[in-house]
Amino acid sequence: MATFFGEILPVESRAFDYDYDDDEDSDEEEVPASNFEAVIRWSPAVRQEIEDNTQNCLQCSILIAAIGPAATAFVRTYVLEPKSPKVGVICTGLKSNDINSLSQNAVTDKTCYIYRLASRPEVILALCNTDVSPEQSYSWTHNLMDKMNVTNVYAAVLCTNPVTDYKSQLPPGDVPTPFLRALKTTKFRGTPACPYLEQPNMVTGLSAQIMSYCEVFKVAAVMYVCYTDSKKVDRQTISMFKDILSSTPFKDVALDKPNEETLKYDELHTEYETLYM
Amino acid sequence: MSGILLPASSRLKSDWTDYTLIIASNCVGNVGQLSADLLISTLWLNKIAYLHTDLLLPAVGNDPYATGKIEKTCKLSTCCELYENEALKLAIIQLRSRIAKGRKGEYVRRLEHWIRCSKFENVIIVSSSNLHKRQESEIKGPTFKYLISDTLKESAGKVLKDSLEWKEHEYESIDNVQLPGSGIALPLFSKCSKFDMNIILIFVYTERGDNLQNAYILCNMLNDWKGWLDMKKSGKTEIAKGQWKPPVSWRWRHGYKKDDMYKS
């Protein structure tokens, strides 16, 4: 809508996260839900464990879901014990230009593995370093969470968002980055280690789906969003998450000696992705 | 909504006799959703259920209707929620995200089925349509119009037309009506009216951008009909804008604060 002086004012509100597109009116063909399925594979040992369980699920006390390269690098460095076994994988497909190593073992690979800590098997880590479309996120979340006994779980979701998505009373260039914001479900009684995400900001995508699941099914969960102006993974963004190591549920699982090797991998990856290589 | 409506409080019921349901459609300028926000915020509706489904794309945020020390609290809101005010017999479905591509038809089918089974007395869809795409015959007409089902027309048609002076959108067959940019509004209205429901679709011709004014006007129109806010108390025929309570989530809608541009 144009004002008296003719300038076009954008309107933003928590009532929505987008404006209506004309193309949404076209009589689009119906797409079956099976087109957006994520596939989960458990290791034989864990599959057996799930089958043997009377409730047909995996015992879990802490679930940490890291979404995106910076969050996964943080969890690899500060939580994941080097000898923790991979117990599952969630597949959502790869794009033709995604570069992966043959063994799928490099930290920069587009993978989504589920780990459990070697010292505490009831701590499950889902490290998602691949692209999951918003349409796939429902299936991704239910595939993982439906196999967990979430009655007494503390869940944590870590992700990053570009600072340009952050709305505040300051102009975008005046907001010092990176910074953390938190959201929690009703069941989560603790206080997060950073300020709450202010209205009218919203988080979308896979991390939002996991939090929605936790709210709806009454799981105690906290989400930490790191707003950053860096397109690539950098040490500053990863280090921002360090503030949460003293809070629930990380204080129980943080490594005494961080595994700094993983940080080097990420920097290496960043170094080679320059414009004029 | 057959498996996708999950309770947020113990007050979720299956029989909604005597209740009016308002559905915010995803639409151009988000007039439907802005109106729903204004009603929920002003009339103190409580969240009673979540729509948790793969038909809607995920979104979470802090409480859009928070009051008081809003920085100190967190009450998670999700992509689509059902709100209720028991005293006013009013329920609102607020949609904050978009419908997954290629799933609009299924969403409408499920919504219609749930509405039909819930036995609402009235159903109101609030939406908007592209101003630049309206038919030639419509250009001189008013920007706010409505479509009404035959059953509701019998009971409320006279009041709307004569007392409130609303303008009905005229058409020969519902299948020929076109409301570009109105989202699920028209298919849902069309489906529900075939089942003899008391349903009305109110929309405004508008464009993208700041549509707060249209949301205020739409809420005033609905209040003129339903009388949720006590107009006699204010002694006015129309409720002043200030009496509606905009939610905290409408902050910074024009971006960051620019008021101090010319301070020394």
Features:
heterodimer; A: 277 residues; alpha/beta; Rossmann fold; eight-stranded mixed β-sheet; two-stranded parallel sheet; 6 helices; 22% helix; 21% strand; globular; B: 264 residues; 9 strands; 27% helix
Secondary-structure map with pairings?
The complex is a heterodimer of chains A (277) and B (264).
Chain A: E1 39-42, H1 44-52, E2 58-59, E3 62-67, H2 69-78, E4 86-91, E5 112-116, E6 123-128, H3 134-145, E7 148-149, E8 154-162, E9 179-184, E10 202-204, H4 206-216, E11 220-228, H5 235-240, H6 261-272
Parallel strand pairs in A: 2-7, 3-6, 3-8, 8-11
Antiparallel strand pairs in A: 1-4, 4-5, 5-6, 9-11
Helix pairs in contact in A: 2-6, 3-4
Chain B: E1 5-7, E2 20-24, H1 31-42, E3 46-51, E4 59-61, E5 80-85, E6 90-95, H2 104-118, E7 122-130, E8 144-148, H3 150-163, H4 185-194, E9 199-206, H5 212-226, H6 231-234
Parallel strand pairs in B: 2-6, 2-7, 7-9
Antiparallel strand pairs in B: 1-3, 3-5, 5-6, 8-9
- Element string of chain B (H = helix, E = strand): EEHEEEEHEEHHEHH
Secondary-structure element sequence of chain A?
EHEEHEEEHEEEEHEHH
Total beta strand runs of chain B: 9
Strand content of chain A: 15-25%
Biggest interface between protein chains, with counts per chain? A-B, 64 and 70 residues
Quaternary structure annotation: heterodimer
Give the termini distance of chain A in whole angstroms: 45 Å
Function (chain B): Chaperone protein which promotes assembly of the 20S proteasome as part of a heterodimer with PSMG1.
Organism (chain B): Dimorphilus gyrociliatus
Pfam families (chain B): PAC2
InterPro entries (chain B): Proteasome_assmbl_chaperone_2, Proteasome_assmbl_chp_2_euk, PSMG2_sf
